[in-house]
Amino acid sequence: MSSSNFHIVLFTLQALLVLAMASTQATASKSDLFREYIGAEFNNVKFSDVPINPNVQFHYILAFAIDYTTSSSSSPTNGKFNVFWDTDNLAPSQVSSIKNQHSNVKVAVSLGGDSVNGGSCYFSPSSVDSWVSNAVSSLTKIIQEYNLDGIDIDYEHFHADPETFAECIGKLITTLKNNGVISFASIAPFDDDDVQSHYQALWKSYGHIIDYVNFQFYAYDEGTTVSQFMNYFQTQSSNYNGGSILASFISDGSGGLSPQNGFFTACSRLRNQGKLGGIFVWSADDSKALGFRYEKQSQALLAAHP
Length: 306
Description:
By secondary structure, the chain is an alpha/beta fold. The chain has helices spanning about 5-30, 90-100, 130-145, 160-180, 195-205, 225-240, 265-270, 285, 295-305, and strands spanning about 35-40, 55-65, 80-85, 105-115, 115, 120, 120-125, 150-155, 155-160, 185, 210-215, 245-250, 280. It is built from 9 helices and 13 strands. The strands form 3 sheets. Strands 1, 2, 3, 4, 8, 10, 11, 12 and 13 form a 9-stranded mixed sheet that branches. Strands 5-6 form a two-stranded antiparallel ribbon. A two-stranded parallel ribbon has the order 7-9. The radius of gyration is 20 Å and the shape is globular. The termini are far apart. Residues about 15-30 have low confidence and may be disordered.
């Protein structure tokens, strides 16, 4: 290779590297994503009840679809998912309506959750291949019926080791994306040893296909301070290295850093540092009684130019 050709190639590689770094930094600092779980508590909350700021990306997350039977004595179904959210108020027609009215709205479904019909909800596959096959089939039907855009993984109890969980969930997300059924996927871990071991195994093998980390910062103690929250955020950013980490609060104020005690101060700092992946809230069901005050404030912060 001649000297001039070498310098041309080197310059081209440097230019591509600069572009790649700029793209990565743009992605990391893009923090206008607001997400809210809805429908788990059957208190008649509707999509249209929640204020939507047109200058944010807005995701509703339906809670939940679960691979359990719908009978009163629920039992695991090895990946055959059923709908467990408030379908009277959050039906396919309502999904289509809210998306037609607001071009910035997408709707996802969360899988699992803490409990089902009064008992703990366990991730309980018979085998990786059978679970994935059943999950792809049953979820594709639900996602297409409800005109959904993505999935969220929120299993919190496990009858499977971390590697099995990682393979099941990783293959599910991969298949749904490759089939064009979903355009994004998120995970919702929290600071518990068993939970973290499962989600970090998933992240290690499949982090590249997970778009958002809905870390449940409200699972930390009630009365969390701004400085503690900033430390927690840094810790989880390291645990899910390279991920788009969202800050979060719980509407009823039962844990974590509350809006009254500095949550938005912490979010502003993270945003100024280019670390804030967005904000999510658990949940619209509880926020309804508060008039969605903090949803409005969250979206105003995200919509403002940093």
